[in-house]
């Protein structure tokens, strides 16, 4: 299982979370990544944690003021990127373009989507992984694996029907080790989470609880 | 073969094109549709031609000022709609939403895309048809079926791998009967065209040339 | 006072509302316009009511599939258009472009905005009118003129400071004649309203109540 | 005169340009800023150069994956931000929102726009500065101050008519000291430039040429 902690634009200390994630990953052997604001990528990467961008733009080098260039996030230390998060939905053609952009510097990719049909569509574009996150559960207290286990199973089936090599993650409401185990049992290869760690009083303890049952 | 004439925002007379399309369709037995501006849908539908919208919004009845409501275009006489044309690219989630919207009043749907990967993605969302239109050939003098026959064949294969029930159209640069025959031979179920008819001095003659070899 | 009834994508009968608006306008002498879906413009215009588009695209004749061409809405009978409604926010450069587009066929224009600063910005672009509609009050039961009279007065002042020839409308929550009188007394030249008429059991009675005190 | 070097998504070394800008600024006394990719902000700021963001999102702390949070760019060392560059056009309401966001951590702001009408609109929103950049001249070989001096003078007048405290910059095609002097004489308080420095073989020499006549 891969655990990706999305810091969004939360008022957390990205270095504190990154150091906690690096420590927990080392101690548990579970792969834990952290996705901070672009401006925080280099500082987060310096902690040694696996560092992800929250987004890369569907552009090449050139006249693209305000874009997030894949090469720039890679130079800052990112090794992967989220694409099409529900808070940053992209045009279909731009998801395709952002995947091309991420491939140039060798960033790993996870394309987010709302439901199994969109997961199949995302998988058809050839990312490393897709992530199903029902928008109505994001930020809530109930894990997708508990509230809507079928959507996770259907997403796993939908992605496999298109391309068996694409991993499937799930997200929305995940905050405990039981949630992660449930996601694992439903066939997910990883989980996306955010507030459960980023807003925790003790991010390291929150992460230890998360990976403990694995 | 289905022939869909997209009037875009061209300075043509939509009624003249619609009447020409209705006449040619009746005489040839070839299915010819016309997609005008939303404001022209009812006048075009009154000619008896098969009438398509250029777009419907991913919304239900409600507070959506400036949207193009699927029910409104159906009430005006449209029986189908284009979605995600390269001049009106949508977010992945909104293509899904526009397909849901079109299904409510029973509109036929064709989702446009740039390349075979995006065609597979579009097919995964369950439209009636997908249409591959390489952006660099749109509006040009060379037909996609001549300039890039492989992209049409690859699109046909990509859609079939995801869902065999989804028709595949192609577009970009199509203006002659030979172009339509070439598209047919590459496996396409229809063609999208625009300037070749909409900007012709004699739209009826242009359409007659198009369907003559079929 | 100008009264503009925005039908949004509501499940109302646009012809019923248009006929009611035409009747009330004739009987009362108050200028009442109706803004339906683009696909309904010609049917609404045929009732004789003053007909407005909900939006026009910042484009000229050309390759703009899915756009709302100013000439097309004018040909369908519209004599004015809303621009930048809070449910259809545009880029600053596109508000400017939509105003240029509306000017070609001589459409009247009202640019909507959230607050007095944005009203001043909108007025600087040279529309016929601006309309202040606080997003948090749109669709609610309390009129902007009651809930936030200062925002209307400030909008009137802000527009006048930039260009005294620009009319100022207000909207959000307006449903009674008292609301219209209050708007008038705060310096507004017109009101935008929607659900209060479009969702009324008897649109004509609702409009008669609205204009009665004028 | 303020000289702001926008690195866009160019394949330049941001540190080399930043060090050159810091050196030239120190030696000449001319205020020179550098606007790199968000991921490069902290490394650029460490050179001691005045550091600007290319964009900030119209959001507060919260669930905004993929946004560019004003506080994050300020923490990384930025002291100012561009908003609404022609390659990153924003909705009017979002320019207003980005200005509010930039104000929280005290970032200086410059809002870009295409023409004098939009400059007046931008000035009405209360930024520290506005910048007129005719899109057709951006990236070209001819300076706006030479190709279209009237647009600069008109922008200066338009901003002053709305708010005299707002500075006016100009950009597009500026690459020599003569261009900067011409801008100064037309009433501009600063210049935006990009490829002339970012793509120069020797950025420091390019900057020295630029500020030499001042």
Features:
homotetramer; 214 residues; alpha/beta; TIM Barrel; eight-stranded parallel beta barrel; 8 strands
Biggest interface, chains and residue tallies: A-D, 43 and 43 residues
Could you name the CATH topology of chain A? TIM Barrel
User: What percent strand of chain A?
Assistant: 15-25%
How many individual helices of chain A?
Answer: 10
Annotated CATH architecture of chain A: Alpha-Beta Barrel
Quaternary structure annotation: homotetramer
Q: How are the strands of the largest sheet of chain A arranged?
A: 1-2-3-4-5-6-7-8
Given the C-alpha coordinates, what overall shape of chain A results?
Answer: globular
- Which stretches of chain A of 5+ consecutive residues score pLDDT under 50? none
SSE ordering of chain A: EHEHEHEHEHEHHEHEHH
Number of strands of chain A: 8
Q: Level of helix content of chain A?
A: 40-55%
Q: Name the structural class of chain A.
A: alpha/beta
Largest sheet of chain A at a glance? 8 strands, parallel, barrel
What CATH first level of chain A would be assigned? Alpha Beta
- Looking at CATH, the homologous superfamily of chain A is Aldolase class I
Topology:
The structure is a homotetramer of 214-residue chains.
Chain A: E1 2-6, H1 14-28, E2 31-35, H2 41-45, E3 50-53, H3 70-75, E4 80-83, H4 92-103, E5 108-113, H5 116-123, E6 129-132, H6 144-147, H7 149-162, E7 167-171, H8 177-185, E8 190-193, H9 195-198, H10 203-211
Parallel strand pairs in A: 1-2, 1-8, 2-3, 3-4, 4-5, 5-6, 6-7, 7-8
Helix pairs in contact in A: 1-10, 5-7
